[in-house]
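Mods, move this if it's the wrong board.
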Amino acid sequence: MSSRKPVIKPAKQAIAPGISLVALLAIAAYALLGPTGVLAWGDYRQRLEVQKVELARLQKHRDALRNRVELLDPKAVDPDLVSELVRRELNVAHPDEVIVPLK
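Not the wrong board. C-alpha cells:
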C-alpha cells in the first residue's frame, strides 16, 4: 500500500483563501478608486468650494428678495418702493422727470 495523498486536496484547501483574497483586493480597490474612494476626495473638496461660493451668492440674493418682500408688507408699505414699482410697471412718469435705472 502506498501512502500517497491526493494532489487535489491541497488545491481544494486553497480555493477558499484565494476567493477571500480576491474579494478583499476588490473591496480595497473600490475603496481606493471608486466614486466615493480616497482618490475622489480632492474632487469633492474642489466641488465643495464651488458650491459654497454659489450658496453664498444665492443667500445674498435671497436676503435682497426678503428685504423687498418686507418693504411691500401691506401693514407698512415703503412709499418709495411702491412709487418705483408703479412707475416701472405702468411706465408712468412726469415729463420733467429723469428716470435713472439702478440695475
